[in-house]
Write a structure and sequence with these properties.
9-stranded mixed sheet; glutamine amidotransferase; disordered N terminus; magnesium ion binding; alpha+beta; Glutamine Phosphoribosylpyrophosphate, subunit 1, domain 1; binds iron/sulfur cluster; disordered C terminus; 490 residues; Amidophosphoribosyltransferase; 2 domains; magnesium; Rossmann fold; 27 strands
Length: 490
């Protein structure tokens, strides 16, 4: 059921939903959550809301709490957003109402602000001269400083994204001018797509922490978090949006301006887990990199075993690489229920107690009596891996050797990935041997930071590796971490 909210002469804001929260079926699921996926399109004559829907569908892995699309046909912005997966939020009839030639879309996992409808994106801000809709992937670290510029009582902004949207729109100035002035003062990670009634914009922070790429359609242009989203809508990859670059897209084509010098520090964790395997970063396929990491992992941490199995799906490429390098046969020992994940039905206690089995089930005939190498992408709190080791032993595994295709995650991320606090990260306080004992594994080996970095072929000084080594490329005042979250202060 739809509920119509504020209606302005040139702006209609469509509200739907009741702010429901999603539930993870598996209480042990503590995998890292990405901040968001963003998508934008400028394409006269195309069904831009459907292109955006499919773009978001391709980016669903980057955020599963809420989804939204904003469109404009040149005179007004219409937004539709709700809690849920992209396919739960949109259907044919909703997309049919979202007509225009410009659209932006967003799928969200919350990093600042709580997981409620009000914080779903795109966000919207309007003045007498028009509206501005914005979608953000990343996390700002000077939000309170930015929010202090807003007049008290002029906004109910509770997230970094809403503050940014309000600041960009507030004076009714040309958007490009406002963005070129504001963005150099914004600190943190941001890959943005935004639009007014006539123009699509995209911008990336000077460090380029989060990805953002430009693609070409026969009838226009596309921007997206990952190249896989370009492929799915039939766009050809043109280039990455440069760190510190702002682009504007309208009937005059694509215009680019630089608002800050580029100091590239791309997120290393994109290669480990966040990006889709069929995405390309800096000209190199993510799948190729992950297989190479698995090969290096086998060299760094060899073991006598009968079978290499992945924790599906994220451990699969590295397990293939490990098997290739070690000569140990590769097999499927765990079956994933791909359709289990976030649900909007509150699980019963009985269902919750099933834990990891809701997502993974062992193949007993494959596992029984074997010495296994189990390859996973990362360990955050350790709950999932502990449950997997236990499950494999119950299924008859003789030995369980855990191999991880990232170094220990020992530091939190302030640039848009919701791992945990340092105290919650198992590698924040325990040694590798202590973690092995905690998991109940026969052995445990992590790829080295050098090995992972070399596998990406990106020089280490162009990467953010802070969650592995605590060296934050955009300085963080760790004593005041709490201040980076804005709690409905304006
Ligand atoms: S801290 Fe880790 S997850 Fe966060 S941006 Fe840096 S490499 Fe990526």
């Amino acid at each position: 059921m739809c509920e119509h909210g504020r209606v302005r002469p040139r702006l209609k804001y469509v509200l739907k939903g009741d702010g429901r929260l999603g539930h993870d079926l598996d209480p042990d699921d503590r995998s890292p959550k990405d901040a968001c996926g963003v998508f934008g399109v400028w394409a006269p004559g195309e069904e831009v809301s459907k292109l955006t829907y499919y773009g978001l569908y391709a980016l669903q892995h980057r955020g599963q709490e809420s989804a939204g699309i904003a469109v404009s046909e040149g005179s007004r912005i219409l937004i539709y957003k709700d809690m849920g997966l992209v396919a739960q939020v949109f259907d044919e009839s909703v997309l049919g109402t979202l007509r225009g030639h410009i659209a932006i879309g967003h799928c969200r996992y919350s990093t600042t602000g709580s997981s409620v409808w009000e914080n779903a994106q795109p966000t919207l801000s309007s003045t007498d001269v028009g509206g501005l809709a914005l979608a953000h992937n990343g996390n700002l670290i000077n939000t309170p400083e930015l929010a202090a510029r807003l007049e008290p009582g002029t906004t109910r902004a509770t997230t970094d994204t809403e503050v940014l949207t309000t600041l960009l729109a507030r004076d009714g100035r040309p958007v490009e001018e406002a963005a070129a002035e504001l963005l150099p003062q914004v600190r943190g990670a941001y890959s943005l797509v935004f639009m007014n009634e006539k123009t699509l914009y995209a911008a990336r922070d000077p460090q380029g922490v989060r990805p953002l790429v430009l693609g070409r359609l026969s009838s226009g242009w596309v921007v997206a978090s990952e190249t896989a989203a370009l492929d799915i809508v039939g766009a050809t990859f043109v280039r990455e949006i440069e760190p510190g670059e702002l682009i504007s897209v309208d009937e005059r084509g694509v215009r680019s301006r630089r608002f800050a010098l580029a100091e590239p520090k791309g997120c290393l964790f994109e290669y480990v887990y966040l990006a889709r395997p069929d995405t390309t970063i800096a000209g190199r396929g993510v799948q190729v990199t992950r297989v190479e990491v698995g090969r290096r992992l086998a060299k760094e941490h060899p073991v006598e075993a009968d079978l290499v199995i992945p924790t599906p799906e994220s451990g699969t490429p590295a397990a293939i690489g490990y098997a290739e390098e070690s000569g140990i046969p590769y097999g499927q020992g765990l079956v994933k229920n791909s359709y289990v994940g976030r649900t909007f039905i509150q699980p019963s206690q009985t269902i919750r107690q099933l834990g990891i089995r809701l997502k993974l089930n062992p193949l007993r005939e494959v596992i029984a009596g074997k010495r296994l190498v189990v390859v996973d992408d990362s360990i955050v709190r350790g709950n999932t891996q502990r449950a997997i080791v236990r499950m494999l032993r119950e299924a008859g595994a003789r030995e369980v050797h855990v191999r991880i295709s990232s170094p220990p995650v020992a530091w939190p991320c302030f640039y848009g990935i919701d791992f945990a606090t340092r105290a919650e990260l198992i590698a924040g306080s325990l040694s590798v041997e202590e973690i092995r004992a905690s998991l109940g594994a026969d052995s445990l080996g992590y790829i080295s930071l050098e090995g992972l970095t070399e596998a990406t072929t990106i020089p280490e000084n162009r990467l953010c590796r802070a969650c592995f080594n605590g060296s934050y490329p955009i300085p963080i005042d760790q004593d005041n971490v709490g201040k980076y979250v804005l709690e409905a202060k304006v």
